[in-house]
Amino acid sequence: MLLGVNIDHIAVLREARKINDPNPLDALGICKISGADQITIHLREDRRHIHDEDAKEICRQSILPVNLECSINEDIIDIVCKLKPTRATLVPENRDEVTTEGGLDVDKNFDRIKKAVEKLHKHEIEVSLFIDPNKKMIKKSSELEVEWIELHTGTFANIYAMLYANLSNTHHSIKELELSRDELKILLDKSRKEIKKAAHYGQDCGLKVAAGHGLNYQNVTKISSIKAIEELNIGQSIIARSVFSGLRQAIIDMKELL
Ligand code: PXP
């Protein structure tokens, strides 16, 4: 199973002080020697963490392939074409969100996405679409002739956290949703089955299948055990662990689980 390490959160920490420390570029060599297979970054429209200069230097200096997540906004696509990452992952973007909140609606935005995909392909950048594990979205993605889809695992991760992590006092709390533990276990199983079914359907459509969002050291094996998934992109949990164990050990620990 391939691992893309999302290093945005190193830039989040830097932005807390608006200085150049820690520098996301310093992660490139560590990711490589620790067994990561890919560097993932998100160039957001509001540049809240990764800046244009980071993206430029990461694309220039990384020995590992770079997977650049971005919106379908035309200005951003033009920038990505100049940066020439190995892959562009198209994601929905909403300025008020804390993180990406769901998959792209490939049906509703079909023509805009098609234009972006054609432009990226013209610049020899492979394309992935970040979508919910849903048959219609996968079918539409394959019509767009993209190389990859990345299945959104956020719902699965939220249910897992409701069951096994202490998330009381948040909007994920079991109490607020008034669901029993047994009901949550059924929902978790259903969510994993949806991801598995979607991964197999994606593979049958000739797409390479990645997955990501909310994956951590507790829940990851439930997803990495799905054979049709080739790659996981993980950020928050790896960077969080690295505060205590160092980035190298955090990546080694995650790779071992995969
Ligand atoms: N994949 C995509 C498309 C994302 O937008 C993100 C978050 O930036 C991730 C994976 C990583 O998610 P997390 O930080 O929750 O591991």
What does this structure look like?
The protein is an alpha/beta fold. The protein has a single domain, classed as Aldolase class I (TIM Barrel). Helix content is 47%, strand content 15%. The chain has helices at 8-15, 27-33, 52-61, 74-83, 110-122, 135-143, 154-164, 174-177, 181-204, 220-224, 236-245, 247-257, and strands at 2-6, 38-42, 66-70, 87-90, 126-131, 148-152, 208-212, 231-234. Helix 7 (154-164) runs antiparallel to helix 9 (181-204) and helix 11 crosses helix 12 (247-257). The radius of gyration is 18 Å and the shape is globular. The mean pLDDT is 93.
Compact summary:
This protein is 47% helix and 15% strand. It is of the alpha/beta class and 258 residues long. It has a single domain, classed as Aldolase class I (TIM Barrel, Alpha-Beta Barrel).
Helix content: 40-55%
* Low-confidence blocks of residues: none
Class, according to the CATH hierarchy? Alpha Beta
Note the beta-strand portion.
Answer: 15-25%
Q: Would you tell me the overall average pLDDT?
A: 93
How many helix segments?
Answer: 12
Query: What's the number of extended β-strand segments?
Result: 8
Summarize the helix and strand pattern as letters. EHHEHEHEHEHEHHHEHEHH
The SS-based structural class is: alpha/beta
Q: Can you list the ligands bound to this structure? A: pyridoxine-5'-phosphate
SSE layout:
Elements lengths: L1 E5 L1 H8 L11 H7 L4 E5 L9 H10 L4 E5 L3 H10 L3 E4 L19 H13 L3 E6 L3 H9 L4 E5 L1 H11 L9 H4 L3 H24 L3 E5 L7 H5 L6 E4 L1 H10 L1 H11 L1
Parallel strand pairs: 1-2, 1-8, 2-3, 3-4, 4-5, 5-6, 6-7, 7-8
Helix pairs in contact: 7-9, 11-12
The structure holds pyridoxine-5'-phosphate.
Pyridoxine-5'-phosphate binds next to strand 8 and helix 11.
